[in-house]
Each structure stands twice: as C-alpha cells, then as structure tokens.
Design goal:
The structure is a homodimer. Chain A is mostly helical. Chain A contains five helices and three strands. Chain A starts with 10 loop residues before the first helix and ends with a helix. Chain B binds a DNA duplex through α3 and α4.
DNA sequence: CCGCATCCGAGTCGATACTG
DNA sequence: CAGTATCGACTCGGATGCGG
C-alpha cells in the first residue's frame, strides 16, 4: 500500500504534509505557546498540563525535524533544554493565526449548524 | 508578531476542533473539489479514486454536520445525491487557501530543514 | 446509485517505570 | 531535569457484503 496521491499537482503533497503536522493533537498548542518566546521543556509541560511527557517530546521532535522549532541543550547538571520558534516557525504563525481567527469568528455558525444537524437526525 | 490566539480560553477548543476536522486525511481534498461547484457522490468517488466509499461517506457527513457542506437528495431511480459547499464552506476556503499557499511557498525551506535534521541524526 | 454495517490490521495516544 | 522504553487502549482507514 503506497501513500501515493493520484491528485496530479505536486503541491498537493506538501499541503497535506503540512496539514498532517499542524493537524496533530498538540502541535498548535505548542507552537502558540512558543510564539511568546523560548521555553524550557518543563515549562511547556507545566503549561500544557494535560499533555504526556511522551507526546510533548515527540511533537517537539517533529516540529524540530520540519524546521519550525530549534532545540538548545545546555549540558549542565541538572540539564536544561530550551525550545524556541525558528524564523520558519514564526512565519507559520501567520496563516495559523488566520485559521485560528476564522475558527473563533465563525464558531457560532458552526455551532448552529451542528445543532440544526442533530435536530434533523433522530438517534445517531 | 504577537499571538492572536487566546490560550487557556474557550476559543482554543474551537480552534482545535476545526483543526481536527480539516486535519482529516481527506477533508481538504474534498473541500477543494467542491469549491468548483456541486458534485455528485459518484463524481467525487471517481475524482478521488484512492478514497474508499466509507471514508468519502463519513468525511462528507462530518462536513455536513459542521455546516460546511450541503447534501441534496433526489429520490429518483436510481437515486441521486449532490453535495455542495455552503456559504460557511466557501468562507473556509479563505484561510485554507492561505495555508495551502504558505505550504507551497515554503516547501523548500521545510525540505532543507528535514535534510539538515537527518544529516545530524545518524541512525534513529 | 448511494451508503450503512461489520470486521480487521496498523498506527496513535497515553500511563507507568526507568536512565543519565 | 529531560528524556527513553514498554505496553495496553483506542481510533483510523480499508475491504467486503448487504439494503433501499
């Protein structure tokens, strides 16, 4: 089974890759936290209390891999690791904020649609 | 430069909900197809050949539930079902296209970052 | 033609325990 | 402090078969 997309446009693949990243359960939460400035691992963990250590680590790794986040290790004892957005990460905030603003602005319309839908679908 | 998304607030949930929707494997593909105009179920199925009937059905249901897509049944024989974007769905195209444009524009930077990352991580 | 029901494998998420 | 390792629960997506 190949992840090949029959959709001809090459660009489509990149769009989907990006969506897969930011569509992750924690990605946006982390990126928006970091938009305020560098944070330590434990700060992020404390700030997003519901996240598990594992998911925080792996999400940060993914973001680092794609060049949105920079990881800075200070080999002291105890060790210290800071994370911050790269230029690319900051650039991403633009469209991301736009989407976020849209979601906030239109949440009522979505909510209405959901209630209308449920009203018409007995059971389910 | 400053985060426009209010963290720790109710808004955050709506943003996440939206991302969960459009982060789905097929959502964007379907929405972009429908942006050109109404389409029948079988047209969509044919156009996105790799999608399974199940996923097409369930994704359309999700989009309908959130008010992005309207479903019109013509009870003829054989039956006929058309799907089209609602006004809300069309509005969503704005931020969605912005994100898509960003992905296309910055694909090289992401690609570079990935290669740089891989070069520094032997094995893994 | 449309799409629901069911089963199943693969990947994801998360709690817990352990290391430098 | 900042992770890694492991294992189970859960969810997603695909295949197939049936029904209106």
């Amino acid at each position: 089974m190949k992840p090949q997309i029959a959709h001809n446009s090459v660009d489509c693949r990149h769009v989907k890759q990006l969506l897969n990243r930011i569509g992750g359960k924690w990605t946006v939460l982390i990126v928006t936290r970091l938009s305020r400035g560098p944070m330590r691992f434990s700060e992020l963990k404390r700030d997003i209390s519901e996240i598990s250590q594992k998911m925080l680590t792996s999400t940060l790794r993914d973001l680092e891999e794609d060049g949105f986040v920079r990881r800075a290790v200070t080999p002291s004892i105890p060790p210290r690791v800071d994370y911050e957005l790269t230029d690319l990460g900051h650039d991403l905030l633009g469209p991301l904020d736009a989407l976020g603003a849209w979601a906030v602005k239109n949440k009522d319309r979505v909510e209405e649609a959901r209630q209308r839908y449920r009203a018409l679908q007995p059971g389910r």
